[in-house]
Amino acid sequence: MSETVTIPSFAPRPKSRAARLSQLVPIAVLLPTMVATGIYIFVFVLWNIYLSVTNSSILPVYDFAGFDAYTRLWRNPRWTTGVWNLALFGVLYIVLSTVVGIFLAILMDQKVKGENLLRSIFLYPIAISFVVTGTTWQWILNPSTGLQSFVRNLGWESFEFSLITDRDTAIYAVVIAGIWHASGFVMVMVLAALRGVDTDMVKAGQIDGASMAKIYRRIILPTIWPVLISVFIILLQFAIKTFDLVLALTHGGPGISTTFPAMFVYDRLFAAGELAQGAAAAVWMLIGLVVLFLPILALNWVIRRQKGAVK
Amino acid sequence: MTAIDTIPNLDRKKPLRPSQVVGRIALYATLIVLALFVLMPLAVIILNSVRFNDDILRESFIGWPTRLTLENWGVAWGEACINASCTGVKPYFWASILMVVPATVISTAIGLINGFALTKWKMPFAGFIFVAITIGVFLPPQVVLLPWAIALGWLGLSKSLVGLSLVHIIQGTCFTTLFCRNYLINLPDDLIKAARIDGAGFFRTFWKIVVPLSPPIIIVTIIWQFTFIWNEFLFAITFSSSDFRPITAALMSLNANDTGVSEYGFGSAAVLIAAIPPLVIYFLGGRYFVRGLTQGAVK
């Protein structure tokens, strides 16, 4: 902070009951947020959990009916396929976006001319909605209109690129669109972290004759860990919430081959009239998020402790 | 952070060896190829928005325009049929604006004043509030979707502009409070103390000291709230109806209708209309956009 501030002078006021009352002002200011957030986070989540153990179908009912909705869920192929797709997509999306992002960041860190322009180009997809991303990639990946027909028109008649219309591979179309959307974001995060690396350490390594690969592995990677953890957390929650991207790209198809848990929840709640089952599926999503988050947060905490209060 | 342009000083200016020249060429070639790949989808839909649909169908979705037309833009804006009402995306665009602008301004203002109260005043349960707000940022929206739907029904706000805006304001406040808290916690306490000694109360201190020092975080927060709410889809589709529908929800219906004919020309224009507001903000406020990304994480 280099800004200098001139403090406006205020006329001194005598201490009074009003002055003491004024100490309650900040609490009063926070109160609406506390109430609203409290309802949103605790009441709503508990309410949803409660609805998941009722018999609610089209309308909510509040009589306890056990965990029937939870067990039925795992017999529903739409749900189990969705969970499997999320696991496959989540791993590929997070790992590949991170790898591509780190690769881009390392390239961008080599004193590149036009860095600002390149960064703007790589990052712009993050400003674009999943609906737009999904729609555009649907057109491009659609074999009868997009890339396949483009290459065939160039003269390569036997060219095949029809991931999106094949049950077994359509999920990779979602992965491609996801990586396109996220890798610039990873690049910017990693690049900012790289710029915070201690250059003296790097120089010392170079003087000692360490290879660039070794310097990256031994000196740079350890210092950018916290950023990688943040990236991981953000991508993980993008992955779990995956909904509009798939809806626009494949609509869950062909068949139900690219259905996702978030789509299942929406379908049960607002199309199938199975409120309890939709609520139960949402609870599983929350459980999944928490189970994956806790070890990461613990790891993050340990790393921060070791580095000694990074704030 | 002014470190954006300081580069690790690995080698001072020396004449490059031939192997290094090859390395530089490979470096730039890789970057340019990847940049073109990232730009490709945007370029394709921009080109398609000025091509005739017949040309797109005959040639390919990916292609250079042989003849130009601006008709697609007019059709997408004012005539295209979405769910059997042929109004184009115009009413949905304005619905999004009506929702996004107040929701962004309100949630940013609340976030800033919350951040001030949380960091510069002794607050009971401050740690607990902070944790609760952080949870609010990460909570999967599916878990609160059904309670929101029921509660908005009780309030008589289901599927309305006010209802959806309320959802975004409450959800967004968690995000803005976290952002502003992380920024204001670095503001020197002495400034606040000095103002208090001079007899300034909460609001006066906020207005005279905190707000003038906060433009960086205000801009970052506004950019992110605007982009997030504009692009949001799940709440938009759940809490809207034919009377009021944000553009992301309308776009999905436009491009998912199975009329048998594929209207890629005005479809592309409609996609671009939906993408333009956040893109304009991104290119105008790019520096702040990046700062918002990195700030939350590095701290």
TrEMBL record, chain A:
Family matches, as InterPro entries: ABC_transporter_permease, MetI-like, MetI-like_sf
Membrane topology note: Multi-pass membrane protein
Keyword Cell membrane: yes
Keyword tags: Cell membrane, Membrane, Transmembrane, Transmembrane helix, Transport
Gene Ontology cellular-component terms listed: plasma membrane
Subcellular locations according to the entry: Cell membrane
ABC transmembrane type-1 domain segment(s): 83-298
Residue ranges crossing the lipid bilayer per the database entry: 24-50, 83-108, 120-140, 170-194, 215-240, 281-303
Family, as annotated: Belongs to the binding-protein-dependent transport system permease family.
Name of this protein: sn-glycerol-3-phosphate transport system permease protein UgpA
Name of the coding gene: ugpA_3
TrEMBL record, chain B:
Biological processes, Gene Ontology terms: transmembrane transport
Cellular component, GO annotation: plasma membrane
Keywords attached to this entry: Membrane, Transmembrane, Transmembrane helix, Transport
Compartments it resides in: Cell membrane
Topology term for the membrane: Multi-pass membrane protein
Membrane-spanning ranges: 21-47, 92-113, 125-150, 162-184, 205-226, 264-285
Family as reported in the entry's similarity comment: Belongs to the binding-protein-dependent transport system permease family.
Name of this protein: L-arabinose transport system permease protein AraQ
Organism of origin: Pelagimonas varians
Gene that encodes it: araQ_6
